[in-house]
Amino acid sequence: MPGLELEQEKPLVASGAMEISVSRAELLRELTATQSVVERKTTIPILSNFLIEAADDRLTITATDLDQSIKTSCAAKVKKPGACTIPARKLYDYIKLLGDGDISIKLMDNHWVQIRSGRSNTKMVGMARANFPQVPAFPEAGVTKIPSASLKNMIGKTIFAISNEESRYTLNGALLILKAESLAMVATDGHRLAHVEKTGESLANISGEKRTLIPRKALSELQSLLSNSDAEFVDFSDDDHTLFFKVGHRTLTSRKLTGQFPNYEAVLPRDNNKFVVVRSEDLMASIQRVAQFADERSGAVKMRLEQNELKISSSSTDSGESEDTIETPYNFDAIVVGFNSSYLIDFLRAVGNAGEVRLEFKDAQSAGQVRPEDADDEYRYRYIIMPMRI
């Protein structure tokens, strides 16, 4: 991967001398934030290690799997600056088991690392710091500040619609669309599409429109970083090969997805003139009950809209059949349409139990659109699902 090569990198400081003292609570917090990136099953052993660097009363921790990396830091008493690499999972699991207080970490001969805490004294087998891949530095030019709350909300409303099929490469991420006064995110797997837009923003360094395809794995890491940070903004930047997200004192880098995201505007329904409004909580409960009896492979449930009622039903030869009725105003022609119940449940989980949702239809063969009914919501959120033959 360009930008993350396994090449010899000159250490920041001479290795072989590192000795530090660090708070167990602070160290554990940063290890927790980075350990999810560490490569578990790898043919390159160094990728199973954390890179630990100590200088200027700061301990910096880096983890990478070559596709993405996280770099974070915490305060430390640096007696001797230096760098080492330590098996990530082993270190994380061990530090979790130590009592509170300060931990001393010292680099020994042959890349062994001594860890002392209270009456515990452990030596771990590390690897040469020079073998750790170089992680690209955050570019200071062209940085856009994205409101953290907006970005986190949009990831939560789209990430579940990203394709899991690796062959559909350009669908393995979500498209982030930045404009000077708005941001939007779109994800699709070819069977459903989630689109959310937030207007009224003021984004610097954006002229016209900037489109960026962010891999699912990076979105998942970003979601986790945002959930554990009170940073008001995310600093976003990119170069030809890499995406950079700075959340507080932590930086996530990710390889860019190449290729053209589909023309999603072309599939957004324009003439779904039949609609029904139901409470999100009621719809979720009904679908979950009925889906217990749906065909295991397809998960299909049937929606029948008739005068002032929505009937949701399913049946399978293995488990039986089930039907739920929700009374709700409906004054259009009767319609019967089938959907994957899991797709509907994903959307309802994303909007939460509060409020109402609007289901919009054209006919049994056309895509349905679901969206929150609350017109005052600052996020414009819509979810398009292809129907199933039933």
TrEMBL record:
GO biological process per UniProt: DNA strand elongation involved in DNA replication
Presence of keyword Ribosomal protein: no
Predominant subcellular localization, coarse grouping: cytoplasm
DNA polymerase III beta sliding clamp central domain residues: 146-263
One Gene Ontology MF term: 3'-5' exonuclease activity
InterPro entries with a match to the protein in the record: DNA_clamp_sf, DNA_polIII_beta, DNA_polIII_beta_C, DNA_polIII_beta_cen, DNA_polIII_beta_N
Keyword Transferase tagged: yes
DNA polymerase III beta sliding clamp C-terminal domain mapped to chain residues: 267-389
Keyword entries, A-Z: Cytoplasm, DNA replication, DNA-binding, DNA-directed DNA polymerase, Nucleotidyltransferase, Transferase
Localization, UniProt: Cytoplasm
Domain DNA polymerase III beta sliding clamp N-terminal, chain residue ranges per copy: 18-136
Pfam name, any one: DNA_pol3_beta
Xref: Gene3D superfamilies: 3.70.10.10, DNA Polymerase III, subunit A, domain 2 (3.10.150.10)
Subunit structure and binding partners: Forms a ring-shaped head-to-tail homodimer around DNA.
Function as written in the Swiss-Prot or TrEMBL entry: Confers DNA tethering and processivity to DNA polymerases and other proteins. Acts as a clamp, forming a ring around DNA (a reaction catalyzed by the clamp-loading complex) which diffuses in an ATP-independent manner freely and bidirectionally along dsDNA. Initially characterized for its ability to contact the catalytic subunit of DNA polymerase III (Pol III), a complex, multichain enzyme responsible for most of the replicative synthesis in bacteria; Pol III exhibits 3'-5' exonuclease proofreading activity.
PANTHER family: BETA SLIDING CLAMP, DNA POLYMERASE III SUBUNIT BETA
Name of the molecule in the record: Beta sliding clamp
Organism of provenance: Acidisarcina polymorpha
